[in-house]
Fold L-asparaginase.
Amino acid sequence: MNYPSIAVGALGGTICMTADNADAGALPRLSAQQLVTAVPGLADIAQIHAETLLQLPSPSLNLAHVLDSLAWAERMVAAGAAGIVLTQGTDTLEETAFLLDLLWTNPQPLVVTGAMRTPLAAGADGPANILAAVACAAYGASRRRGVAVVMNNTIHEARWVRKANSMSVETFESPVVGPAGMVLEGMPQYFRPPSRRYSQRAGKPDLSVRVALVETCLGETGEMLDAVVHAGYHGIVIAAYGAGHVSDDEAQRIEALVPRLPIVVSSRTGSGSTAARTYGFSGSEIDLARRGALFSGWLGPRKARLLLWLLLATGAPRDACATAFEFWKRLDEVD
């Protein structure tokens, strides 16, 4: 039988971590080949090309690493791979997957997975996650769906998934739209057609561009925004109260800074959209829009930061940034 060719690239993370003893703490050590060799039944669903790209804990991954992983995945597809699986740590997995989704233009599936338990822990989840991810990447109906995150036999669209628990194996969720599907008895099953996608491909990103993420909190006056601008950042995303609100003091600082750099307001709640026309107090969404702020709609602050970074890093003008964020405010519109 001719099984589809799936390229598995390992970036590090808990899924490849071992420890010398119980007190030493786990470190990323296992190679991609060691990871796939430990998965029962993998050879029965795909021909695997395994390659170790990095061995890093996911907090140490950076934008350049993600772009390098994208380039590797594109080379694998050009060489004939029917799908791609990347393994990494879960701490930054939602961000890596979203940035890849913004840039991935191939019809072949790109699936990101990891583990919440180390390979030597009781009930290690890494092998099952790799098996499910490869099954998803090898399945024909996964094509043209962009980047997926597969964990705990659940398929999430990269644009919506988030890590919602620090330690549980059921940590990943998609609070806006729910999971895209499940892997049942080794077979991916999708609940709905692919969601409308946004992609941004306009040249090689400038890695010197920096976008700050600032969370507002009780008593905040906006002085942090001044510090961010003074530090040379090129854009700011504010994880704001509720549906996109800040204090009166912070609103005034936003108005003063908007001529210098784009400021995007998102919700810090973890679910739900920013508002557009409900509240009118100083620091409300109506007031901040009048002052020149942009709003991220249904897109959460961490992903809004990545989208703004990509826009600025590829030279998008201010009006193009505004248009890009408009996409995330009406999910029911048709391309």
Notes: Residues 211-329 form a domain with the Rossmann fold fold (CATH 3.40.50.40).
